[in-house]
Amino acid sequence: MARTALPGRLTWRVARLTEARRETGTARTLVFDVPDWPGHLAGQHVDVRLTAGDGYSAQRSYSLSAPGRVELTVQRAPDGEVSPYLTDVLGPGDPVEIRGPVGGWFVWRPDAGRAVLLIAGGSGIAPLMAMIRARRLSGSDVPFRLVYSTRTPADVFYADELQHPDPGVDVTHIYTRKVPDGCPRPPGRLTPADLEGVSTDVDCFICGPTGFVEAAADLLLARDHDPRRIKTERFG
Asked: Which residues pair with 150 in a beta bridge?
């Protein structure tokens, strides 16, 4: 996810992979051991840097997908320099460099106390999943609603976890190309009907590709949501 870091204020740390699991055919969740990690808030991200033997290096930014530990879910990008290595090559004990956490605006804090609407497109679910998990960890009873758009059911991250959400967390799936058997909604993009019944008195977090984020934000504004309570994070 492309974001701007704060050079000079953060330290690169050597992180080693301790756990990995497949989310989809092209996405993988990675858990790292990072010595002296300062902790992070739900919604923040990190920079990951890979350095080749000849000294060439490349770095990308990825959202943290869980509180309490450094966990990233990486979607392999066609012709990518970093993501193919992370999704298909990196093995247990292998090192990467990580810098962070980065970002203080697109974050959810348990003491906010207001109902939350989360809207995710594709891999944009990662920081929003961190918020759902932070809610559970904190014991908060603040109502959450997640509207998650993917191309097909096979593209859903954290499928098992979202199939059985926590009490107070309502999950709605939207599929743009192929729907599962028995799904009453035809395939298609996010529409006003998908947001029916959503209160305007909520804190909104939207994450995904730029076009998706802009369209979702426009739908909320058309429903008279307060723009000051709509936070967006985009990539691409």
From this structure: 175
By DSSP bridging, strand 230-235 and strand 203-209 are parallel
Q: Where are the alpha helices (DSSP H) in 41-124?
A: 83-88
Terminal alpha carbon distance of the chain:
7
Query: Model pTM greater than 0.85?
Result: yes
pLDDT digits (tens, 9 = 90+) for 30-64: 999 999 999 999 999 999 999 988 889 999 999 99
Asked if 25 and 35 count as a contact pair (C-beta separation under 8 A), the reply is: no
Distance CA 235, CA 36 (A): 29
Within 108-177, residue ranges assigned H as helices are 125-138, 159-163
Look at the block and give the residue holding tokens 């309490």.
Answer: 68
In angstroms, what CA-CA distances link 105 with 45, 48, 94, 229?
11, 20, 32, 11
pLDDT tens digits for 7-18? 447 899 999 999
